[in-house]
Amino acid sequence: xxxxxxxxxxxxxxxxxxxxxxxxxxxxxxxxxxxxxxxxxxxxxxxxxxxxxxxxxxxxxxxxxxxxxxxxxxxxxxxxxxxxxxxxxxxxxxxxxxxxxxxxxxxxxxxxxxxxxxxxxxxxxxxxxxxxxxxxxxxxxxxxxxxxxxxxxxxxxxxxxxxxxxxxxxxxxxxxxxxxxxxxxxxxxxxxxxxxxxxxxxxxxxxxxxxxxxxxxxxxxxxxxxxxxxxx
Length: 232
Prior knowledge:
By secondary structure, the chain is α+β, with helices and mostly antiparallel strands.
């Protein structure tokens, strides 16, 4: 056996899934998709902002057991593009700066403590938890001492990194972009787009009808021996 072969590093696999479903109910899934899609749209023109949902994040090279899959994560300073997982050492050693978790009935207090400690240890700057069943909303922001500290009041809170405003209407989370647009589920966006397209089409038809009436009037005037441009 050659010395090169003897010294070759073992091949380590970094799975892209653990076999568990992304969400445990429709509410959780809807909010994961809404937040991920809303943030992706908000940073559409920023090639240096990567937004992902339910993607494994491996912070340590050579360690495929230390990992977590935030429901939504935002990474500033990394390009957009598809990935099987987020391997931090391949990403300029830049960790996700903002993560969201959508609570499900199976989550336990110890699980939230474990995730908070993970995010604190590996560089997350902002961590938000929303429970669509109860309307509970929590936020943690990294303090000067390096720890993730709870946000005292989430109603009206504006994310320092995202610029997104958090509010609650009853138990419903309301996220608003810096330019005042609310995050909406895909079906609401699709309905709004269809409505806008219908308005454009009605305006096109109205303009076409006006053009045809003007042409008909001009033709009648010509038949009477009057040129339309002679009318003041």
